[in-house]
Amino acid sequence: MTDAAPTREDPLAATLSEGLGGPLGERAGRHPWWTPVRVLLALAAVVVALGMLQKAPCYSDTWSDSDARFSQMCYSDLPYLYTGRALAERAWPYSGDESLRERYPEVMEYPVGISYWAWGTALVAQGLTEGLGGLPDLAERRAADPGSLFGDAEVQREIRAFVIVNALGFAVLTLLAVWLLARTHARRPWDALWFAVSPALLLTGLVNWDLLAVVLVAGALWAWATGRPLLTGVLIGVGTATKLYPLFLLGAVLVICLRGRRWRELGVVWLGAGVAWLLTNLPAVLTGYEQWRVFWSFNSERGADLGSLWLVAAQAGDLDIDPSTINTASLAFFAAWCAGVFVLGMLAPETPRLAQLGFLLVAGFLLVNKVYSPQYVLWLLPLAVLARPRLRDQLVWQAGEVFYFAAVWWYLGGLLDAGGGGDAGFYWVAIVLRVGAELYLVALVARDVWRPQHDPVRRPLPPPPPTDVPPGAPAPVHESPVSR
């Protein structure tokens, strides 16, 4: 039994391999050390390193050049939130201290998992900057205007260290995600290749802290495929406490368990997720309930924002769409989308895979959401590469994401403004093309669910090129097992 090889079962990969010796043959030997997983980890390490290099133009001046961060597309939220959310003063994100909140009225607007990580890496960065001298004295900072801290020379050294510490942490998480994805399907480690070499991963990995949730989703996919329902639930719960979207995997688990009448597993996953979410949020709730609530109020009060179709409608139609209207309409659209995915999953000829249903649900949320930041592509990445592991389809989808990535920064930098002023219609085009590329992949995954014979993971592996086969002998059949 051989592993599925992209050059053997993926038509585009096979064609592109002709210049490198052609598709993998039956007599191809295995390297004693370079296993598929190690190759994938090495490729991912190169991509992560290139991602760090891509941010070098901004790192060199500590993100102080407001033009370069957009023209060079090296923007990151990390350096600005280091000073803007009191991390430079080592303030606990959920502190209700009146003097602190007077100086820093804006608190971390993310779920608790990200806040914990940001606070911890800020402490590490300050310790590394000070060396054996310990942590810096905060008296001067607390006496200064918070808005002036970003330009302070000592704080800028810490900002660079903060970005480095986070980048190294993200690198470890990325390698872990690749390892988990490569082991999700027992004989399909190469499906993780499209994650490991993803241009979207390279460009967006350092924009924000989204990779924290990505590795938890990858872990949940692996845990479910290997028969660990409790761990699946725990990882989904912690993931939801880090970014909201892993919650939607519970809907995918619901469909799978309903079809198979797997009531015990359904209960274990949902209970594990609920308990894990509560325990992860507990420190924040106990130390600063009002600050903990900011994530929920911030998102409800937000209007049409970058990357969303709502923004295109508001700007192109010159409309002033109230946030409450967007909230209601988005919820209605997403509820209808979830109902459609549920019906599709329940009526499909075979039980869909977790990655397929999870991808469809998360994609629906992003398509109707009122903000679609460039790094949100990472939410879909581990689900997409397992749902539809085909090079052509990954290239089409990620090409749309890369195009949007360039357009959004140039739009923010004023580089796409029309000659006579006004809104940049080119940015609207980029949003629509990005959505179109995503819908292309959504359509393929939905077709694979409805017609399982099109699913690359369910399809039997093609036999290797015949060698020394006696005339009339039947060709061997290479089955491709499907994960749970």
From TrEMBL:
Domain of life: Bacteria
Membrane keyword on record: yes
Biased composition (Pro residues): 459-474
GO molecular function, one term: hexosyltransferase activity
Main localization category: membrane
Disordered: annotated span: 1-20, 456-484
Protein name: Putative membrane protein
InterPro entries xref list: GT87, UCP010361
Topological type in the membrane: Multi-pass membrane protein
Transmembrane segments: 33-53, 159-181, 193-224, 230-256, 268-289, 329-347, 354-372, 424-446
Compartment list: Cell membrane
GO cellular component, one term: plasma membrane
Pfam families, per database record: GT87
Family per similarity comment: Belongs to the glycosyltransferase 87 family.
Keywords, in A-Z order: Cell membrane, Membrane, Transferase, Transmembrane, Transmembrane helix
Compositional bias per record (Basic and acidic residues), positions renumbered to this chain: 1-11
